[in-house]
Specification:
Length: about 140
């Protein structure tokens, strides 16, 4: 009697742990963090702009250099579902008058045309006019 209980408990434990080896079963959302950087807005930032103009385009930076307020860091990190996280860092350097002197983007951002479209358009069809007994039409 105890042997049957022990075998049943062991099989139950093995069947529960076997489910944990299946990957990508649970839905995971895309997690963007930091400043959302788009290629179109980053391209609008030019040398010669002032701090207010840069902040209007990109928002408040994630980090301002603590030793001098002349370097702003815009960090964008996105993790899509089960893919590895992708980080983009955009550094804006200002001179003492608050004018942009140097721009540095660590790697190119995806453009708007390269975005994946995951919306499905459902169009109205003739199936709304059909009756349940006319399934072959």
């Amino acid at each position: 009697m105890q042997l049957k209980t022990l075998i049943t408990a062991a099989m139950l434990a093995l069947s529960v742990t076997a489910c944990s080896t299946v990957s990508k079963v649970v839905y995971r959302i895309d997690v963007p963090q930091g400043n959302y950087l788009e290629a179109a807005t980053v391209d609008q930032v030019k040398v010669g702009m002032n701090k207010q103009q840069v902040q209007y385009l990109l928002g408040t930076p994630v980090l301002i250099d603590p030793f001098s307020n002349d370097t702003w860091y815009y960090v964008f990190l996105i993790q899509k579902a089960y893919q590895t996280p992708e980080q983009h860092t955009f550094i804006v350097n200002f001179d003492k008058q608050g004018v942009v002197t140097h721009l540095d983007l660590d790697k190119p951002l995806p453009t708007a045309g390269e975005k994946e479209i995951n919306n499905v358009v459902i169009e109205a069809s003739e199936s709304q006019n059909k009756r349940w007994w006319q399934f072959w039409k």
